[in-house]
Amino acid sequence: MPIRWKSISAALAVAVAALGVAACSNSSDDKNEITVYNAQHESLTKEWVDAFTKETGIKVTLRQGGDTDLGNQLVAEGAASPADVFLTENSPAMALVENAGLFADLDKQTLDQVPAQFRPSTGKWTGIAARSTVFVYNKDKVAADQLPASLLDLAQPQWKGRWGAGVSGADFQAIVAGLLALKGEDATKAWLKGMKDNATAFPNNVATMKAVNSGQPDGGVIYHYYWYRDQANTKESSNNTALHYFKNQDPGAFVSVSGGGVLKSSKKQESAQKFLAFITGKTGQEILRDGDSMEYPVASGIAANPALPPLASLQAPAVDPSKLDAKKVTALMTEAGLL
Amino acid sequence: MALRTAVVAPRVGRPGPLVTTVALLLVAATFVPLGYIVSTIFSTGLHEAAHLVFRPRVGDLLRNTTGLVVVTVPICVVLGVGLAWVVERTNVPGAAWWGPVFAAPLAVPAFVNSYGWVSVFPTMHGLSAGVVISTMSYFPLVYLPAAATLRRLDPAVEESARALGSGPVAVFARIVLPQLRLAILGGGLLIALHLLAEYGAFVMIRFDTFTTAIFEQYQSSFAGPAGSMLAGVLVLCCLVLLAVEAGARGKARYARIGSGAPRAAARVALGPSVVPVLIALAAVVVGSIGVPMWTIVRWLRIGGAKVWDLTEIGTALGQTIGLAALAAVLTTLCAFPVAWIAVRATSAFARIVEGANYITSALPGIVIALAMVTVTIRWAPPLYQTVTMVVAAYVLMFLPRALVSVRAGLAQVPIGLEEVSRSLGKSGPVTFFRVTLRLTAPAAAAAGALVFVAVATELTATLLLAPSGTRTLAMRFWSLSGELDYAAAAPYALIMIVAAIPVTYLLFTQSRKAAGL
Residue B92 carries which DSSP code? Predict the structure, then answer.
């Protein structure tokens, strides 16, 4: 009996100590440690972080989440945010944080590394990578001459029940934001209504592609690199499919810019700025090219992975990334019954 | 007043100020999520709130969610009771072996089960898929209490009925089934609440419920009003379930009067029907354990050695064990004062404490997490994204599970022993530690173990509340399977199942020993 009592009190002591340690460890003011709210793919950011820590000795803690939830979270946290850097897959969440006045100006060195078309004119954040919208289709279900000429065609009755998209994800919402910026609110509303009638909702791009591959539905709106990634690996989820690029400055040819910014509230400006300079620098962009992410590098003159069609050949419509409105898109999608 | 307390000998069992304070704090914390939702409704404005609630999407979700509950719960009841009857009351071969096997699915988290089924049937989706997967995950919640009740029933009543000319079917329907009512209602309620709260399993098969939609809203607008309104509807659904169960339970008594001498019932000879029965039992095992295990083994084989990233797995395992252990100890400790009041004090206060506890047990983790994120960010920023906060959420979410066990343990402590200790001059706390805690140690251990497993497989609250850098087993599994990297997710699934096996076995043996329902 006394032995059991001892072990109980030992367990209690450990628990209380753990609680104390954990409570203290949160408020780290160490300049050599930054917190990144990361909505980029975890594996890509980890490659960046490992190389960055190796080069500078600065440790990086990641908080993983989606574009929109982390963006909205930063707005809710305001000046009290524990985040130093914010990385996204798309632009709308960056615009959201920028509009709330939460970003610091980026170092000139960083901005100079990125061509003007891949960053907002304000210089409050920068593009770090890019991805193109594509229509993935099942080769047995859709003949090449039946392919939609425009993204807008997918709202037409002949596509009823035949396509899908990762509706709840930020990726798809960025495409809708592009549509909104290019065609205006009424056209977007009408298109979303057609989409509610025609499309199947999937949790994300990969699930959409996998479903199209198994023939249910015939096609889907996704980003290009999921397909190239699967092709480079087992082809298990893309065997029966091909990609259709809309081109011609169509809203469906929208190229989404992944963003990075430094929070004004960060007490570690120098380390945080260093991190973004690194990502957009030669080493960071080479990691993007050589890794298995298959996203497009946008800075420091690094060309894309040779498996991809060159970025310039995609005839993307021109959209100012800081004009993409995540809030409006969520509201419109909620109104259309998609969220 | 002061004089009276001085004169009266220290009464054992009356809750002291410490116990009362802790219980009061817990009750207050219970109402934080509920209060948060109500206050959002008002701050959003009733008009806007109504606009967010009465829209077609909410209709879709309501249809999906009620459809799921209405179809799944009866199937689980029929399956659970049927299996329990076959195992306990027939001469089916290997009865001793089937018992623990039908408890084993509890070790497989529902989202791992979903992953198993989706791997085998990639096009599985919607209501039918939701029903199959949740039935295979949750039927043991009816099976366990039903089997325990069947073992304890006094066969004399059934024999009398048979002597009076009733056939076996009539005996089952009129004598056995009514006595299983508490087991069926309690198990059914638990399953229904699980169905309302489940997130991962249904996202994986593209089946939208209130919980998945709340998470979607959280992802597209953090803690916006639309998500809170959905949470409000979800809470209402839970309260409706609680009311239905309480109404159906009634006030009839089920315990036998007088001591008597219960013996084991004679087992029904199955005869030739033993073959289809065995096939049915095997089918349930294949569906509930076979499919997920086969999938995991298959992905592990495909992934080979490279999916065993030991640093990542080690970190995730360490963080999971740390959080789960902390939550288990704290939750069990918090269960003591509440259980104490429930067992020893019969007052209006005790009823409030109990009632509040029912309400928490009905709140899905996503609602609690959503409330805590918003409350801490606004009013307690230092607690935001801390271990303290996520553990507090675990305590609120899983206190009811610990309570069931601790209360049963406490009820069996003879008050006389405590009175002897007090009369020998020992103080209240000393008596508690020397007498009460020792006698309730097994119950407390069971409670802690239950909470441990619940936390180790928890997903939504952890995703929303945990400090940056936290990657638990469930989080890693979720992010990898979300990228459809099923091979890399497999080790995490396996570790979660292995960790839950001892507790599942403990639950199984406890259910056989349980003294009353």
Answer: -
Task: Report H helices in chain A.
Answer: 2-25, 42-56, 67-77, 92-99, 108-113, 170-183, 185-198, 205-213, 224-232, 269-280, 282-290, 326-335
Report residue B462: phi and psi, to 5°. -65, -45
- Cβ B191 vs Cβ B208: under 8 Å: no
Helix (H, G, I), strand (E, B) or coil at B54: coil
Q: When comparing pLDDT for A190 and A67, which is higher?
A: A190
Selecting from B218, B224, B482 the residue whose C-beta is nearest the C-beta of A204 gives B482
Residue B14's nearest CA partner among B307, B329, B253, B344 is B344
In this structure, how many other beta carbons lie within 10 angstroms of the beta carbon of residue B341? 26
CB contact under 8 A, A330 and B220: yes
Residue A168 contacts residue A312 (beta carbons within 8 Å): no
Q: Which residues of B touch A60 (CB under 8 A)?
A: none
Stretch 7-66 of chain B: residues touching chain A, C-beta under 8 Å: 55-57, 60
Does residue B221 sit in helix, strand or coil?
A: helix
Query: What would the mean pLDDT of B160-182 be, rounded to a whole number?
Result: 86
Alpha carbon of B142: minimum distance to chain A alpha carbons (Å):
32
DSSP 8-state symbol, B459: -
Binary contact (B219, A337; C-beta < 8 A)? no
Asked if A203 lies within 8 A of B484 by C-beta distance, the reply is no
Of A15-29, A35-49, B107-121, B503-517, the one with minimum mean pLDDT is A15-29
Cβ atoms B369, B47 nearer than 8 A:
no
CB atoms within 10 A of CB B182: 18
Residue A252: phi, psi to the nearest 5? -75, -10
- Residues A151-161: pLDDT tens digits? 999 999 999 99
Report the gap between the CA of A73 and the closest CA in chain B (Å): 6
Say what the pTM is: 0.84
pLDDT at B7 over 50: no
Q: Report the distance separating Cα B442 and Cα B444, nearest Å.
A: 5
Neighbours of B477 (CB within 10 A): 27
Other C-beta atoms lying within 10 Å of the C-beta of residue B268: 14
Q: What is the pLDDT of residues B76-100, one digit of tens each?
A: 999 999 999 999 999 999 988 999 9
The 3-state DSSP composition of chain A as helix, strand, coil percent (nearest 5) reads 50, 15, 35
In this structure, are strands A59-64 and A241-244 parallel, antiparallel, or unpaired? unpaired
Both tokens of residue B76? 């689980």
Torsion of CA A214, A215, A219, A224, to 10 degrees: 20
Contact A278, A52 (CB under 8 A): yes
The owner of tokens 């979700």 is B61
Helix (H) or strand (E) holding B477: helix B473-482
Cβ pairs bridging A and B (under 8 Å): 126
> B388, A22: Cβ pair inside 8 Å?
yes
Q: Which helix (H) or strand (E) holds B340?
A: helix B310-344
Euclidean distance between CA atoms B42 and B49, whole angstroms: 8
Give the per-residue pLDDT at B222: 72
For A333, the token pair is 């999608």
Whether A237 sits inside 8 A of B484 (CB atoms) is: yes
Whether A277 contacts A168, CB under 8 Å = no
Residue ranges of B 314-373 with Cβ closer than 8 A to chain A: 322, 325-326, 329-330, 333
Report residue A222: phi and psi, to 5°: -140, -175
Packing angle of the helix pair B225-249, B181-197 (nearest 10 deg): 180
Cα gap A264→B382, rounded to integer Å: 19
Q: B204: closest CA among B298, B110, B323, B108? A: B110
User: Quick one: closest CA in A to B59, which residue?
Assistant: A337
Q: What is the distance in angstroms between the Cα of B99 and the nearest Cα belonging to chain A?
A: 31
- Measured distance CA(A278)–CA(A282) in Å, rounded: 8
Residue A263 DSSP label: B
